[in-house]
Amino acid sequence: MSAVPQADPCNIVIFGASGDLTRRKLLPALARMQRWNLLAADSRIIGVMRDPSWHAERWQQYVHASLEEFHPDAINEADSWQTIAAMLELTIGDLTDASMYQRLRENMKSSNGRTNALFYLAIPPQWYESAVSALHQSGLLDESDGFRRIVIEKPFGSDVASARALNLAFREYVKESQIYRIDHYLGKEGVQNLMVFRFANTVFEPLWNRNYIDHVQISVSENIGVEYRADYYEKAGALMDMIQSHLIQVMTLVAMEIPVSLDGNAVRDEKVKVLKSVRPIPPDQVDRFAVRAQYAGGMIDGKRVPAYRDEPDVDPASTTETFAALKLYIDNWRWQDVPFLLRTGKRLPHRVSEIAIRFKKPPKNLFSQVKTQLPQNELIFRLHPEEGMIFLLNAKLPGLNDELRKLALDAPYAVTGSDSPEAYETLLHDALLGQMALFSRADEVEESWRIVAPVMQAWKQPGSIRFYEAGSWDIPDTETIMEGCIGCWRDLSTTYQHGYTSSS
Q1: What are the φ/ψ torsions at residue 465 (nearest 5 degrees)?
Q2: Which of 132, 295, 352, 364 has the most beta carbons within 10 angstroms of its beta carbon?
Q3: 3-state DSSP call for residue 302?
Q4: Other C-beta atoms within 10 Å of 127: how many?
Q5: Are residues 94 and 141 part of one domain?
Q6: Are residues 242 and 335 in the same domain?
Q7: Does an H or E element contain 399, and which?
Protein backbone atom coordinates (compact mmCIF):
# COMPACT_ATOMS: atom_id res chain seq x y z
CA MET A 1 0.00 0.00 0.00
CA SER A 2 3.07 2.30 0.05
CA ALA A 3 2.30 3.80 -3.38
CA VAL A 4 -1.17 4.91 -2.33
CA PRO A 5 -1.29 8.57 -1.24
CA GLN A 6 -1.95 9.35 2.40
CA ALA A 7 -4.77 11.82 3.00
CA ASP A 8 -4.18 15.05 4.88
CA PRO A 9 -4.87 14.98 8.64
CA CYS A 10 -8.61 14.97 9.18
CA ASN A 11 -11.23 14.88 11.91
CA ILE A 12 -13.39 11.87 11.02
CA VAL A 13 -16.66 12.54 12.83
CA ILE A 14 -19.11 9.62 13.05
CA PHE A 15 -22.70 10.48 13.88
CA GLY A 16 -24.28 7.27 15.14
CA ALA A 17 -20.98 5.99 16.49
CA SER A 18 -22.58 3.27 18.64
CA GLY A 19 -24.56 1.83 15.73
CA ASP A 20 -24.16 -1.42 13.86
CA LEU A 21 -22.69 0.17 10.72
CA THR A 22 -19.94 1.80 12.76
CA ARG A 23 -19.13 -1.41 14.65
CA ARG A 24 -19.17 -3.77 11.65
CA LYS A 25 -17.84 -1.59 8.84
CA LEU A 26 -16.49 1.87 9.66
CA LEU A 27 -14.21 1.10 12.61
CA PRO A 28 -12.62 -1.97 10.94
CA ALA A 29 -12.17 0.06 7.74
CA LEU A 30 -10.45 2.90 9.58
CA ALA A 31 -8.22 0.41 11.43
CA ARG A 32 -7.12 -1.17 8.16
CA MET A 33 -6.47 2.27 6.69
CA GLN A 34 -4.28 3.11 9.67
CA ARG A 35 -2.45 -0.20 9.28
CA TRP A 36 -1.73 0.66 5.63
CA ASN A 37 -0.57 4.18 6.57
CA LEU A 38 -3.51 5.82 4.80
CA LEU A 39 -4.54 7.89 7.83
CA ALA A 40 -2.30 10.74 8.86
CA ALA A 41 -1.04 10.48 12.43
CA ASP A 42 -2.73 13.77 13.40
CA SER A 43 -6.15 12.50 12.36
CA ARG A 44 -8.97 12.11 14.87
CA ILE A 45 -11.83 9.58 14.98
CA ILE A 46 -14.60 11.39 16.85
CA GLY A 47 -17.66 9.45 17.92
CA VAL A 48 -20.88 11.42 18.45
CA MET A 49 -23.20 9.81 21.02
CA ARG A 50 -26.56 10.94 22.39
CA ASP A 51 -26.44 8.74 25.51
CA PRO A 52 -24.81 10.70 28.39
CA SER A 53 -23.65 7.47 30.04
CA TRP A 54 -20.89 7.19 27.44
CA HIS A 55 -17.44 8.44 28.36
CA ALA A 56 -13.99 8.37 26.75
CA GLU A 57 -12.95 5.06 28.34
CA ARG A 58 -16.19 3.35 27.30
CA TRP A 59 -15.73 4.62 23.72
CA GLN A 60 -12.23 3.15 23.62
CA GLN A 61 -13.50 -0.15 25.00
CA TYR A 62 -16.27 -0.20 22.39
CA VAL A 63 -13.82 0.41 19.54
CA HIS A 64 -11.45 -2.23 20.91
CA ALA A 65 -14.26 -4.81 21.16
CA SER A 66 -15.47 -3.98 17.63
CA LEU A 67 -12.02 -4.45 16.18
CA GLU A 68 -11.49 -7.62 18.21
CA GLU A 69 -14.60 -9.07 16.53
CA PHE A 70 -14.25 -7.71 12.99
CA HIS A 71 -10.55 -6.84 12.53
CA PRO A 72 -8.47 -8.72 15.13
CA ASP A 73 -5.16 -7.82 13.44
CA ALA A 74 -5.59 -4.29 14.82
CA ILE A 75 -5.69 -5.75 18.31
CA ASN A 76 -2.90 -8.29 17.81
CA GLU A 77 -0.50 -5.58 16.70
CA ALA A 78 0.04 -3.51 19.83
CA ASP A 79 1.53 -0.47 18.08
CA SER A 80 -1.40 -0.34 15.69
CA TRP A 81 -3.98 -0.37 18.47
CA GLN A 82 -2.12 2.28 20.47
CA THR A 83 -2.07 4.53 17.39
CA ILE A 84 -5.81 4.07 16.84
CA ALA A 85 -6.58 4.61 20.53
CA ALA A 86 -4.70 7.91 20.45
CA MET A 87 -6.97 9.11 17.63
CA LEU A 88 -10.22 8.47 19.52
CA GLU A 89 -12.34 11.33 20.83
CA LEU A 90 -15.93 11.42 22.05
CA THR A 91 -18.63 14.09 21.85
CA ILE A 92 -21.89 13.66 23.79
CA GLY A 93 -25.13 15.36 22.82
CA ASP A 94 -28.32 15.29 20.79
CA LEU A 95 -28.26 16.06 17.07
CA THR A 96 -30.62 18.99 17.66
CA ASP A 97 -28.62 20.43 20.57
CA ALA A 98 -26.61 23.47 19.46
CA SER A 99 -24.21 23.12 22.42
CA MET A 100 -23.23 19.65 21.22
CA TYR A 101 -21.80 21.13 18.03
CA GLN A 102 -19.77 23.61 20.05
CA ARG A 103 -18.29 20.70 22.03
CA LEU A 104 -17.64 18.91 18.75
CA ARG A 105 -15.74 21.92 17.45
CA GLU A 106 -13.57 21.88 20.59
CA ASN A 107 -12.74 18.19 20.04
CA MET A 108 -11.64 18.79 16.44
CA LYS A 109 -7.90 19.14 16.00
CA SER A 110 -6.07 21.51 13.70
CA SER A 111 -2.95 20.50 11.81
CA ASN A 112 -0.73 22.98 9.95
CA GLY A 113 -3.39 25.64 10.46
CA ARG A 114 -6.18 23.57 8.86
CA THR A 115 -9.09 21.81 10.54
CA ASN A 116 -10.25 19.30 7.95
CA ALA A 117 -13.41 17.36 8.76
CA LEU A 118 -15.28 14.40 7.30
CA PHE A 119 -18.77 14.04 8.80
CA TYR A 120 -20.12 10.51 8.39
CA LEU A 121 -23.90 10.29 8.86
CA ALA A 122 -24.31 6.71 10.10
CA ILE A 123 -27.78 7.63 11.36
CA PRO A 124 -31.36 6.92 10.25
CA PRO A 125 -32.27 8.77 7.02
CA GLN A 126 -34.93 10.90 8.72
CA TRP A 127 -32.12 12.67 10.61
CA TYR A 128 -29.97 13.56 7.58
CA GLU A 129 -31.43 17.02 6.99
CA SER A 130 -31.47 17.90 10.71
CA ALA A 131 -27.80 16.98 11.11
CA VAL A 132 -26.67 18.89 8.01
CA SER A 133 -28.76 21.93 8.97
CA ALA A 134 -27.27 21.96 12.47
CA LEU A 135 -23.73 21.59 11.12
CA HIS A 136 -24.40 24.57 8.87
CA GLN A 137 -25.92 26.68 11.66
CA SER A 138 -22.95 25.97 13.92
CA GLY A 139 -20.48 27.06 11.25
CA LEU A 140 -18.88 23.61 11.05
CA LEU A 141 -19.39 23.43 7.27
CA ASP A 142 -17.36 26.60 6.66
CA GLU A 143 -14.30 25.66 4.59
CA SER A 144 -12.21 28.74 5.32
CA ASP A 145 -9.77 26.73 7.49
CA GLY A 146 -9.98 23.29 5.84
CA PHE A 147 -12.25 21.03 3.82
CA ARG A 148 -15.65 19.92 5.12
CA ARG A 149 -17.19 16.79 3.57
CA ILE A 150 -20.37 14.90 4.39
CA VAL A 151 -20.74 11.17 3.77
CA ILE A 152 -24.33 9.97 3.53
CA GLU A 153 -25.42 6.34 3.65
CA LYS A 154 -28.33 5.01 1.63
CA PRO A 155 -31.22 5.24 1.30
CA PHE A 156 -31.12 8.78 -0.07
CA GLY A 157 -34.85 9.40 -0.22
CA SER A 158 -37.55 6.80 -0.73
CA ASP A 159 -38.78 7.87 -4.17
CA VAL A 160 -38.20 10.56 -6.79
CA ALA A 161 -40.02 13.28 -4.86
CA SER A 162 -38.32 12.67 -1.52
CA ALA A 163 -34.86 12.37 -3.11
CA ARG A 164 -35.40 15.65 -4.97
CA ALA A 165 -36.66 17.35 -1.81
CA LEU A 166 -33.62 16.15 0.15
CA ASN A 167 -31.28 17.37 -2.58
CA LEU A 168 -32.96 20.79 -2.56
CA ALA A 169 -32.75 20.97 1.24
CA PHE A 170 -29.05 20.12 1.23
CA ARG A 171 -28.33 22.88 -1.30
CA GLU A 172 -29.38 25.43 1.32
CA TYR A 173 -26.60 24.30 3.65
CA VAL A 174 -23.80 22.73 1.64
CA LYS A 175 -22.30 22.63 -1.85
CA GLU A 176 -22.77 19.54 -4.02
CA SER A 177 -18.98 19.14 -4.09
CA GLN A 178 -19.06 18.55 -0.32
CA ILE A 179 -21.64 15.71 -0.45
CA TYR A 180 -20.46 12.10 -0.77
CA ARG A 181 -23.46 9.78 -1.23
CA ILE A 182 -21.90 6.41 -0.54
CA ASP A 183 -22.72 3.18 -2.35
CA HIS A 184 -20.46 0.50 -0.90
CA TYR A 185 -21.00 -1.66 -4.00
CA LEU A 186 -19.00 0.78 -6.12
CA GLY A 187 -16.08 0.39 -3.71
CA LYS A 188 -15.72 -3.32 -4.43
CA GLU A 189 -12.50 -4.23 -6.21
CA GLY A 190 -14.30 -6.19 -8.92
CA VAL A 191 -16.62 -3.30 -9.76
CA GLN A 192 -13.74 -0.83 -9.96
CA ASN A 193 -11.80 -3.24 -12.13
CA LEU A 194 -14.69 -3.29 -14.59
CA MET A 195 -13.70 0.19 -15.78
CA VAL A 196 -10.09 -0.92 -16.20
CA PHE A 197 -11.12 -4.03 -18.17
CA ARG A 198 -13.24 -1.84 -20.45
CA PHE A 199 -11.08 1.23 -20.95
CA ALA A 200 -7.51 -0.10 -20.63
CA ASN A 201 -7.96 -2.92 -23.18
CA THR A 202 -8.71 -2.31 -26.85
CA VAL A 203 -9.96 -5.87 -27.39
CA PHE A 204 -13.38 -5.24 -25.81
CA GLU A 205 -14.42 -1.95 -27.38
CA PRO A 206 -15.30 -3.26 -30.90
CA LEU A 207 -17.58 -5.89 -29.33
CA TRP A 208 -19.16 -3.68 -26.65
CA ASN A 209 -22.38 -2.80 -28.44
CA ARG A 210 -25.73 -4.00 -29.80
CA ASN A 211 -24.10 -5.60 -32.85
CA TYR A 212 -22.46 -8.37 -30.81
CA ILE A 213 -24.09 -8.44 -27.36
CA ASP A 214 -27.45 -10.16 -26.97
CA HIS A 215 -28.09 -9.13 -23.36
CA VAL A 216 -26.45 -8.38 -20.02
CA GLN A 217 -27.22 -10.08 -16.69
CA ILE A 218 -26.25 -8.42 -13.39
CA SER A 219 -26.88 -10.74 -10.46
CA VAL A 220 -26.45 -10.54 -6.69
CA SER A 221 -27.60 -13.50 -4.61
CA GLU A 222 -27.31 -13.77 -0.85
CA ASN A 223 -27.75 -16.87 1.30
CA ILE A 224 -28.53 -14.84 4.42
CA GLY A 225 -32.01 -13.72 5.39
CA VAL A 226 -33.16 -10.34 6.61
CA GLU A 227 -31.20 -10.78 9.89
CA TYR A 228 -31.30 -7.69 12.14
CA ARG A 229 -32.58 -5.32 9.40
CA ALA A 230 -36.28 -6.21 9.42
CA ASP A 231 -37.44 -2.74 10.43
CA TYR A 232 -35.66 -1.18 7.44
CA TYR A 233 -36.24 -4.06 5.03
CA GLU A 234 -40.01 -4.13 5.55
CA LYS A 235 -40.11 -0.56 4.18
CA ALA A 236 -37.57 -1.13 1.41
CA GLY A 237 -37.63 -4.64 -0.02
CA ALA A 238 -35.18 -6.02 -2.57
CA LEU A 239 -36.05 -3.46 -5.25
CA MET A 240 -35.11 -0.42 -3.16
CA ASP A 241 -32.45 -2.11 -1.06
CA MET A 242 -30.38 -3.52 -3.91
CA ILE A 243 -31.60 -2.74 -7.43
CA GLN A 244 -32.29 0.99 -7.11
CA SER A 245 -29.16 1.73 -5.11
CA HIS A 246 -26.57 -0.85 -6.20
CA LEU A 247 -27.36 -2.81 -9.36
CA ILE A 248 -28.44 0.20 -11.42
CA GLN A 249 -25.17 1.87 -10.49
CA VAL A 250 -23.23 -1.20 -11.66
CA MET A 251 -25.26 -1.15 -14.90
CA THR A 252 -24.09 2.41 -15.61
CA LEU A 253 -20.45 1.27 -15.43
CA VAL A 254 -21.17 -1.53 -17.91
CA ALA A 255 -23.04 0.74 -20.32
CA MET A 256 -21.34 4.15 -20.04
CA GLU A 257 -19.24 5.73 -22.76
CA ILE A 258 -15.58 6.37 -22.04
CA PRO A 259 -15.26 9.56 -19.98
CA VAL A 260 -12.87 12.33 -21.02
CA SER A 261 -10.95 11.72 -17.79
CA LEU A 262 -11.24 9.96 -14.44
CA ASP A 263 -12.31 13.22 -12.81
CA GLY A 264 -15.36 12.66 -10.61
CA ASN A 265 -17.75 14.78 -12.65
CA ALA A 266 -16.49 13.42 -15.98
CA VAL A 267 -17.26 9.85 -14.88
CA ARG A 268 -20.59 10.80 -13.35
CA ASP A 269 -21.62 12.78 -16.45
CA GLU A 270 -21.38 9.57 -18.50
CA LYS A 271 -23.27 7.56 -15.89
CA VAL A 272 -26.09 10.09 -15.87
CA LYS A 273 -26.34 9.90 -19.67
CA VAL A 274 -26.98 6.16 -19.30
CA LEU A 275 -29.64 6.69 -16.65
CA LYS A 276 -31.41 9.36 -18.70
CA SER A 277 -31.46 6.93 -21.65
CA VAL A 278 -33.24 4.13 -19.77
CA ARG A 279 -36.59 3.44 -21.42
CA PRO A 280 -39.49 4.13 -19.03
CA ILE A 281 -41.39 1.03 -17.93
CA PRO A 282 -45.07 1.41 -18.94
CA PRO A 283 -47.13 1.43 -15.72
CA ASP A 284 -49.65 -1.01 -17.22
CA GLN A 285 -46.91 -3.47 -18.29
CA VAL A 286 -44.85 -3.81 -15.11
CA ASP A 287 -45.39 -7.59 -15.05
CA ARG A 288 -43.50 -7.86 -18.37
CA PHE A 289 -40.47 -6.06 -16.97
CA ALA A 290 -40.36 -6.90 -13.26
CA VAL A 291 -40.73 -9.98 -11.05
CA ARG A 292 -40.94 -10.18 -7.27
CA ALA A 293 -41.10 -13.02 -4.78
CA GLN A 294 -40.57 -13.73 -1.07
CA TYR A 295 -38.67 -16.57 0.56
CA ALA A 296 -40.55 -19.30 2.37
CA GLY A 297 -38.93 -21.70 4.82
CA GLY A 298 -36.27 -24.06 3.53
CA MET A 299 -32.75 -25.40 3.93
CA ILE A 300 -29.53 -23.37 3.70
CA ASP A 301 -26.22 -25.20 4.10
CA GLY A 302 -28.04 -28.16 5.61
CA LYS A 303 -29.87 -26.07 8.22
CA ARG A 304 -33.58 -25.31 8.39
CA VAL A 305 -34.28 -21.56 8.09
CA PRO A 306 -37.59 -19.75 8.66
CA ALA A 307 -39.77 -18.02 6.11
CA TYR A 308 -39.44 -14.25 5.79
CA ARG A 309 -42.87 -13.79 7.41
CA ASP A 310 -41.62 -15.76 10.43
CA GLU A 311 -38.53 -13.58 10.95
CA PRO A 312 -38.48 -11.29 14.03
CA ASP A 313 -40.18 -7.91 13.52
CA VAL A 314 -41.67 -8.90 10.15
CA ASP A 315 -45.40 -8.52 9.50
CA PRO A 316 -46.90 -12.06 9.36
CA ALA A 317 -48.88 -10.96 6.27
CA SER A 318 -45.98 -9.05 4.67
CA THR A 319 -45.87 -8.72 0.88
CA THR A 320 -42.36 -7.25 0.91
CA GLU A 321 -40.25 -8.81 -1.83
CA THR A 322 -37.00 -10.54 -0.87
CA PHE A 323 -36.29 -11.31 -4.53
CA ALA A 324 -36.61 -8.83 -7.37
CA ALA A 325 -35.71 -8.96 -11.07
CA LEU A 326 -35.94 -6.13 -13.56
CA LYS A 327 -35.50 -5.84 -17.34
CA LEU A 328 -34.32 -2.46 -18.61
CA TYR A 329 -33.51 -1.07 -22.04
CA ILE A 330 -31.07 1.76 -22.72
CA ASP A 331 -32.27 3.74 -25.70
CA ASN A 332 -29.06 5.05 -27.20
CA TRP A 333 -26.86 4.33 -30.22
CA ARG A 334 -24.71 1.70 -28.50
CA TRP A 335 -27.36 -0.28 -26.60
CA GLN A 336 -30.67 0.10 -28.43
CA ASP A 337 -32.87 -2.98 -27.79
CA VAL A 338 -30.23 -4.82 -25.72
CA PRO A 339 -31.93 -6.05 -22.50
CA PHE A 340 -30.19 -5.41 -19.19
CA LEU A 341 -31.45 -7.95 -16.66
CA LEU A 342 -30.95 -7.14 -12.97
CA ARG A 343 -31.77 -9.65 -10.22
CA THR A 344 -31.14 -9.98 -6.53
CA GLY A 345 -32.50 -12.10 -3.71
CA LYS A 346 -32.03 -13.32 -0.17
CA ARG A 347 -31.99 -16.92 1.10
CA LEU A 348 -30.65 -18.22 -2.19
CA PRO A 349 -28.24 -21.20 -2.17
CA HIS A 350 -24.99 -19.21 -2.36
CA ARG A 351 -23.59 -15.73 -1.99
CA VAL A 352 -22.69 -14.79 -5.55
CA SER A 353 -22.24 -11.50 -7.43
CA GLU A 354 -21.46 -11.31 -11.13
CA ILE A 355 -21.91 -9.36 -14.34
CA ALA A 356 -22.46 -11.60 -17.37
CA ILE A 357 -22.21 -10.30 -20.94
CA ARG A 358 -23.88 -12.83 -23.26
CA PHE A 359 -22.95 -12.51 -26.91
CA LYS A 360 -25.08 -13.23 -29.95
CA LYS A 361 -24.87 -16.47 -31.89
CA PRO A 362 -22.55 -16.70 -34.91
CA PRO A 363 -24.36 -15.63 -38.10
CA LYS A 364 -23.92 -19.16 -39.51
CA ASN A 365 -23.44 -22.33 -37.50
CA LEU A 366 -20.91 -24.46 -39.38
CA PHE A 367 -21.17 -27.15 -36.71
CA SER A 368 -24.90 -27.84 -36.96
CA GLN A 369 -24.19 -31.55 -37.43
CA VAL A 370 -22.58 -31.71 -33.99
CA LYS A 371 -24.85 -33.29 -31.39
CA THR A 372 -24.06 -30.77 -28.68
CA GLN A 373 -25.84 -27.45 -28.92
CA LEU A 374 -23.55 -24.53 -29.71
CA PRO A 375 -23.56 -22.37 -26.54
CA GLN A 376 -23.19 -18.60 -26.62
CA ASN A 377 -19.94 -16.91 -25.72
CA GLU A 378 -20.06 -15.17 -22.36
CA LEU A 379 -17.80 -12.71 -20.60
CA ILE A 380 -18.32 -12.87 -16.85
CA PHE A 381 -17.02 -10.35 -14.37
CA ARG A 382 -16.96 -12.25 -11.09
CA LEU A 383 -17.43 -9.89 -8.11
CA HIS A 384 -17.85 -12.62 -5.48
CA PRO A 385 -16.47 -15.12 -4.74
CA GLU A 386 -12.88 -14.92 -6.06
CA GLU A 387 -13.02 -11.67 -8.01
CA GLY A 388 -11.91 -12.05 -11.59
CA MET A 389 -12.96 -12.43 -15.20
CA ILE A 390 -14.04 -15.53 -17.13
CA PHE A 391 -14.37 -15.75 -20.91
CA LEU A 392 -16.44 -18.73 -22.06
CA LEU A 393 -15.54 -19.92 -25.57
CA ASN A 394 -16.39 -22.96 -27.68
CA ALA A 395 -13.62 -25.43 -28.49
CA LYS A 396 -13.27 -28.95 -29.85
CA LEU A 397 -13.30 -31.77 -27.34
CA PRO A 398 -9.88 -33.51 -27.49
CA GLY A 399 -9.84 -36.89 -29.21
CA LEU A 400 -11.13 -38.61 -32.35
CA ASN A 401 -14.51 -36.92 -32.38
CA ASP A 402 -16.19 -33.75 -33.56
CA GLU A 403 -17.82 -32.84 -30.25
CA LEU A 404 -17.60 -29.31 -28.89
CA ARG A 405 -16.96 -28.27 -25.33
CA LYS A 406 -17.09 -25.03 -23.39
CA LEU A 407 -13.65 -23.63 -22.61
CA ALA A 408 -13.29 -21.18 -19.71
CA LEU A 409 -10.44 -18.68 -19.80
CA ASP A 410 -10.29 -17.78 -16.13
CA ALA A 411 -8.37 -14.69 -15.02
CA PRO A 412 -8.47 -14.28 -11.21
CA TYR A 413 -8.19 -10.66 -10.16
CA ALA A 414 -6.73 -10.99 -6.67
CA VAL A 415 -3.14 -12.09 -6.15
CA THR A 416 -2.78 -15.04 -3.80
CA GLY A 417 -1.79 -13.79 -0.36
CA SER A 418 -2.54 -10.15 -1.20
CA ASP A 419 -4.33 -7.93 1.30
CA SER A 420 -6.89 -6.19 -0.89
CA PRO A 421 -8.97 -3.36 0.53
CA GLU A 422 -12.67 -3.82 1.12
CA ALA A 423 -15.31 -1.41 -0.12
CA TYR A 424 -15.42 0.91 2.87
CA GLU A 425 -11.65 1.38 2.98
CA THR A 426 -11.65 2.38 -0.68
CA LEU A 427 -14.57 4.78 -0.35
CA LEU A 428 -13.42 6.39 2.91
CA HIS A 429 -9.97 6.90 1.43
CA ASP A 430 -11.47 8.48 -1.71
CA ALA A 431 -13.63 10.78 0.43
CA LEU A 432 -10.59 11.89 2.44
CA LEU A 433 -8.73 12.60 -0.82
CA GLY A 434 -11.70 14.42 -2.34
CA GLN A 435 -12.12 11.94 -5.19
CA MET A 436 -15.82 11.75 -6.10
CA ALA A 437 -16.01 9.34 -9.04
CA LEU A 438 -17.37 6.46 -6.92
CA PHE A 439 -19.99 8.60 -5.15
CA SER A 440 -23.44 9.40 -6.51
CA ARG A 441 -24.31 12.91 -7.62
CA ALA A 442 -27.73 14.46 -6.98
CA ASP A 443 -28.99 13.91 -10.54
CA GLU A 444 -27.83 10.28 -10.48
CA VAL A 445 -29.92 9.57 -7.40
CA GLU A 446 -33.03 11.20 -8.83
CA GLU A 447 -32.70 9.38 -12.16
CA SER A 448 -32.29 5.98 -10.50
CA TRP A 449 -35.48 6.58 -8.51
CA ARG A 450 -37.26 7.59 -11.72
CA ILE A 451 -36.35 4.27 -13.34
CA VAL A 452 -37.91 2.12 -10.61
CA ALA A 453 -40.87 4.42 -9.90
CA PRO A 454 -43.45 2.54 -12.05
CA VAL A 455 -42.48 -0.76 -10.44
CA MET A 456 -42.65 0.68 -6.93
CA GLN A 457 -46.08 2.11 -7.64
CA ALA A 458 -47.40 -1.16 -9.08
CA TRP A 459 -46.07 -3.19 -6.15
CA LYS A 460 -47.70 -0.86 -3.63
CA GLN A 461 -51.13 -1.89 -4.86
CA PRO A 462 -52.96 -4.57 -2.82
CA GLY A 463 -52.23 -8.06 -4.07
CA SER A 464 -50.49 -11.31 -3.40
CA ILE A 465 -46.83 -12.20 -3.77
CA ARG A 466 -45.27 -15.38 -5.10
CA PHE A 467 -43.00 -17.49 -2.88
CA TYR A 468 -39.78 -19.45 -3.35
CA GLU A 469 -38.24 -22.03 -1.09
CA ALA A 470 -35.21 -20.81 0.86
CA GLY A 471 -32.10 -22.48 -0.54
CA SER A 472 -33.55 -22.84 -4.06
CA TRP A 473 -32.83 -21.09 -7.37
CA ASP A 474 -36.39 -21.84 -8.50
CA ILE A 475 -38.04 -18.41 -8.46
CA PRO A 476 -41.56 -18.19 -9.95
CA ASP A 477 -42.08 -16.16 -13.15
CA THR A 478 -38.44 -15.13 -13.65
CA GLU A 479 -38.39 -16.57 -17.17
CA THR A 480 -41.10 -14.11 -18.24
CA ILE A 481 -38.65 -11.20 -18.36
CA MET A 482 -36.13 -13.30 -20.34
CA GLU A 483 -38.42 -12.97 -23.35
CA GLY A 484 -36.38 -11.92 -26.38
CA CYS A 485 -33.05 -13.02 -24.84
CA ILE A 486 -30.91 -15.91 -26.04
CA GLY A 487 -30.74 -18.73 -23.51
CA CYS A 488 -31.94 -18.46 -19.95
CA TRP A 489 -30.74 -17.07 -16.64
CA ARG A 490 -27.20 -18.06 -15.78
CA ASP A 491 -26.90 -20.75 -13.14
CA LEU A 492 -25.14 -18.85 -10.36
CA SER A 493 -23.97 -22.10 -8.80
CA THR A 494 -21.41 -22.26 -11.60
CA THR A 495 -19.94 -18.91 -10.56
CA TYR A 496 -19.75 -20.21 -7.02
CA GLN A 497 -17.82 -23.20 -8.40
CA HIS A 498 -15.26 -20.97 -10.14
CA GLY A 499 -17.43 -20.29 -13.18
CA TYR A 500 -16.28 -23.12 -15.40
CA THR A 501 -19.70 -23.91 -16.82
CA SER A 502 -22.80 -21.95 -17.73
CA SER A 503 -26.45 -22.45 -18.47
CA SER A 504 -27.38 -22.74 -22.11
Answers
A1: -135, 145
A2: 295
A3: coil
A4: 15
A5: yes
A6: yes
A7: none
